[in-house]
Amino acid sequence: MSDDPQKKMTPYTVPIGPTHPALKEPVMFTFQMNGEQILKADFAPGQTHRGIEWMGMRRNPVQIVHLTDRICGICGVSHSLAFARAMEQIMEIEVPERADYVRTIIAEFERIQSHLLWAGVAAHELGFDTLLHLTWRVREQAMDTIELLTGNRVNYGIIQVGGVRRDFTPDQFPAIEETLQYYSDLKSKLLKIFLEDKTIQMRCRDCGVLSYDDALKLCTVGPTARASGLNMDVRVDYPFAAYGDLAIEPILPDAYMGETRGDVFDRIVVRLLEVDQSVDIIRQCLDRMPAGEVIAEPKLAKLLNQFKKAHGEALGRHEAPRGEVLHYVRMDGKEHPTSWKVKASSYSNLMSWIPMLEGEQIADIPIIVASIDPCLSCTDRVAVVRSGERGIMTKEELHRLSVEKTRRLSA
Amino acid sequence: MTLIETILAAVGGTVAMAVFGIVAGLFFLGVDRKFAALMQARIGPPLRQPFIDAAKLMRKENIVPENAIPWIFNGAPILALASAITILLYLPVGSIMPVLGGAGDLILVMYLLTIPALAMVVGGFASGSPYATVGAQREMVILIAYELPLAIAIIAIAWRLSMAGIADPFSLTTIAANPVWGVVGPVGAVGLLILLGILAWVTPAELSRIPFDAQEAETELAGGLLVEYSGKNFALFYLAQAVKTIVMAALAVALFLPWNLSSFVAMAPAVAVAADFVFFLAKVLLVVFFSISLIRVSMARFRINQIVSIYWVWLGLAGFVGLALVMIDAILAGV
Amino acid sequence: MKPAKLLTPEEVVAVFAKKFGKGILESRITERCEGVGKRPSYDIWLDIDRDTLHPAVRELIAIHFPHLGVISGTDIGDAVELNYHFSIYYGTKHGEYMVTLTVALPKSDLRVATIADLIPGAVFSEREKQEMLGVEVVGIPDGRRLFLPEEFPEGVYPWRKDETGIRDGMVKDLWAVGRPANRPARPAIPPEEEGVVQAAEVAEAKVTAREPAPAEEERHE
C-alpha cells in the first residue's frame, strides 16, 4: 500500500495476484473489502497470454495438433481432440471407429486425473493438506496408465488429424482393468472423506453460490454449470467420438444430495461422481471397442498435401474435465488455417467468479477461485521489479538466464 | 544468598532456559513435521530440518518493506522471542523448579502468553501490507476468542486445589507438586478430562496451527502477519514459535500431567533430575502429538467467524460444563 | 429450463428465414456422425446481416436460451467476419445443435451491436474481439482490454492480417536468437570431473568472450 489516503479508508482494496499461493496459475484479482467481507470483485486474465492462436495461424495443422497438446498442462487430449475433430469435418475425413474409442478412453482417463488433481488442490486451499497428499497419491494410478497407453504423463501426443497415433496393445488391457478396479474400490472412500468431513462441510456448504440463472446467463460450462443445476454435458447432448454409442447421463448434484444449491460443495460432489462415471465410460468402451485401423491417413506427407486443398469452416467440440472445449477452424486452401479460435472451458467459466465471490469472506477466496477449476496459461513474458524499477524481461533474457542457471547448477 | 548470587542464578537460569527452549522447541517442531509427514504417507524432512531452516534464515538478508515502520517492524520479532522465553522461566521442567517460580503465578503466565501474539500483531500492522494487516486483525480476534476457554481451564484447577485446602493454589510450584488428579473424585476427573481437551484445542490457536491458523493462512493471506518478514527477523519469529511450542506443552504438562518419575522410584538426586527431565520431554512429545500434529493433519482451516464461534460457544460451553463438574466434585467431597 | 418443443435443424433455419427474410444471407446445416452407432450431431450456420444480429439472438432466446460458446473472428481481407457460436437444446440427450451466426463487418465500419444486454456472459468474448480484431462493440458494458497487457501498443490487433496486425519487429523468434554474446563465463571445472559431454561445452565456452557475471545476478541465485 502506498501513502495514498484513498487506500487506507474503508472499503479498502486487497489485491490477490498475479501470483499468490491461492492461485495455481496467474490471474489478477482486485477486491473491495469491508473488513473480512468482499464488496466488489474484479479480475484481469491474460497475465501470461501466449498468443497460441496467432502462432497456429502460421503453422500447418499437423504442427497445430502438437501445439494444442501444450495449451493446457492437464487437458492434454481435450484441445487436440477438439482441433482434430474440426479439421476432420473440414476435410471430410472418416475417422476409424477404433480411433474414436481410443480417443474416448484417453479423454476419460484424463478426466479422472484432472478431477483428482482438482480435489487435491481444493483440499489444499482449505488447509487440509492430508487430503491433498492422499488424492494426489491415488491420482498417480491414472497418470501411470496414461503413460502406459500414450507414452507420456502430460502432453500425450496421441491425437492426429484423422485418428490416433498409436493403438492399444493386448498386453495393456490388464493394466487398464486394474486401474479401473482401483478407482471403483476407491469411490466410496473418496466420497466419504470429502463429503462427510465436518470441516469441509463447514467451509464449502453455501459458500460461493452460483445460481441457476447466473450459470446460464454467464455461459458457464462443465461441472461448474452442472453443480448449479444446469443440465449441460457435451458428451451426452452432442454425440461425438464414441460417446454417441454409450449410455451416459449427466451428473447433477440433486441426484446424490437431493437438492441443488450451486455452492462449492456441489462442485465437489459433481467432480467426485464424475470420476466414477469416467470409470464406467471406459468400461463401456472396452466392451464395445471394435477392431481395425486407428488412423485414416498414416502418411503425414499425404495429409499435409490434403490440408492445402482444404476449404471450409468447422467447429470441434469436446467435454474437457472443466467443461466444453470449442475450436473453430477455417481453412482457405492454404497450408495454415485462416482462422483458429480456441475456446477453453475456463474461458466460459471465469465470469462466474464475480457472483460467487461478492458477499463472501477473504477466507473463501481461495476455495471459490479454485472451485471452477480455473485453467489459465503459461508464460510469455515476466515483469521484474528490481529496486523500484519495473522492466519487462524478454524471452531472450529469460532464456539466457535459465541457460546460465542450468550451467551453474550442473557445474 | 547474597544479592549477587541471586542475580547470577537468575541470569544463569535464564540463559539455560533460553537455550533449552530454543533447542527443544526446534526439535519438537521437527518431530511434529515428521509425525505429520508419516500420517500423510510422506517421508517428510529430517528431524533436524528446523535447525537447518533457522540457521539458513539467520544468514539471509533482512528486508524491510518501504511502507513499514522500521523500528516496530524490527522490534516485534525480538519482543516475541524474549516474551516467549520469559514465560518459560515461570514453568517447571521436570523436577527442575521454575527459575522465577517465586515471583509469579499462573495468572501472570496467562497474561504473558498474549505478549508473543501481540508482538506478532504489532509486527503485522507495522509491515504496511494489506495481507499482514488482515492477518493482524485476525490474530487479535483469535487472541480474544481463545482467552475464555483457556481462563476457565486454568481457574478451575486452581480453584479446586484451593478448595482442597492447599495454600497458594495459583503458584505453578504448588500445582506441579500437587497433581490435581489426586485431589478430585470421579466426577471431578471427568470435568478435568474436558478441561484437558479444551487446553489441547487452545494450543493450536496459540501456535497458529491448522485449523486455527487463519492469521497466517498460507493459501489466503500468503503468510498473513509474517508475509513481509524475511531473514533474521523471520528467524526470530520462527524461534519464538519453537519456544512457544515448548511453553504450551510445558503448561499442559504442569497443569494436567505434573508427575515426576522420581516421586515413584527412589533415585539418586542427580539421576532423578535427569530422569525427570527425560520424562518431561516424553510428556511434551505426547502433548505435541495430540494437540498439534494430530489435529492439524485431520482438519481443514476454519474461517475466522467459525473460530470465534468454536471458542466462545462450543469450547466456552464445554469449559463451563467442566468447571461445573469440578465444582460438584468439590461439593461431594464435602469441602 | 426445458424447451417447450424440439425443432429439427431445418425447422430452426426456417424459423429464422421466416422471421428475418433478407436479413439471413445464407444458411446451411452440417451433419457429423462418429463412433460405431454413427449418431449424427448437427451444426447450423447462418450468415446474417449486421443489423439482424441482435434480433436474431433474441429469436434464439425465444427458441431456447442459448449457451454462447465463444465469438470467433476472421480477417477476410476487406471485411472482418465475426462468428457467434451458440448451442441450443443442451440437456436433451443427443439433441443439442450448434447455431453459428456470422456477421461480416466491412473494414470501413467495424462496428457491431453488443449482445451482452441479452446474454451477460458475452461481454468476456466481446472484449477479446475488440482487442484482437479491432472491431468496436457498440454498447459494451465493459470495454477494457482482456488478455493483452497494458503496455501493448494501441492500434495493433493480433488477429488482423493487414497493416494493423502484428508487425515483424514485434515477433521474437526464440529459435533464431542464437547464443547470447554476453553470457558470463562458466565456472572452471577440474579436468577429472569433466564428462565427455561437458568437455564439448567447455571447448565452446572458451571461444566466447569471458565477461565476469554481474554481482546482481549472483544475488538472485
UniProtKB/TrEMBL annotation, chain A:
SUPFAM superfamilies for this protein: HydB/Nqo4-like (SSF56762)
Keyword Cell inner membrane annotated: no
Top-level division of the source organism's lineage: Archaea
Gene3D superfamilies, per database record: Cytochrome-c3 Hydrogenase, chain B
Record bears the keyword Repressor: no
UniProt KW keywords: Oxidoreductase
Domain NADH-quinone oxidoreductase subunit D: 126-381
Protein name: NADH dehydrogenase subunit
Upper classification of the organism: Archaea, Methanobacteriati, Methanobacteriota, Stenosarchaea group, Methanomicrobia
TrEMBL record, chain B:
Top-level division of the source organism's lineage: Archaea
Protein keywords: Membrane, Transmembrane, Transmembrane helix
Keyword Heme assigned: no
Entry's localization field: Membrane
Residues passing through the membrane, by range: 6-29, 68-91, 106-128, 140-159, 179-202, 235-257, 277-299, 311-333
Membrane topology: Multi-pass membrane protein
Keyword Transmembrane helix attached: yes
Protein's UniProt name: NADH-quinone oxidoreductase subunit H
Lineage of origin: Archaea, Methanobacteriati, Methanobacteriota, Stenosarchaea group, Methanomicrobia
Automatic annotation (TrEMBL), chain C:
SUPFAM superfamilies reported in the protein's UniProt record: Nqo5-like
Lineage, uppermost ranks: Archaea, Methanobacteriati, Methanobacteriota, Stenosarchaea group, Methanomicrobia
Residue stretches making up the NADH:ubiquinone oxidoreductase 30kDa subunit domain: 47-163
Family matches, as Pfam families: Complex1_30kDa
Name listed for the protein in its UniProt record: NADH-quinone oxidoreductase subunit C
Family matches, as InterPro entries: ComplexI_49kDa-like, NADH_quin_OxRdtase_su_C/D-like, NADH_UbQ_OxRdtase_30kDa_su
Species name: Methanoculleus frigidifontis
Cleaved signal peptide residues: none
Domain of life: Archaea
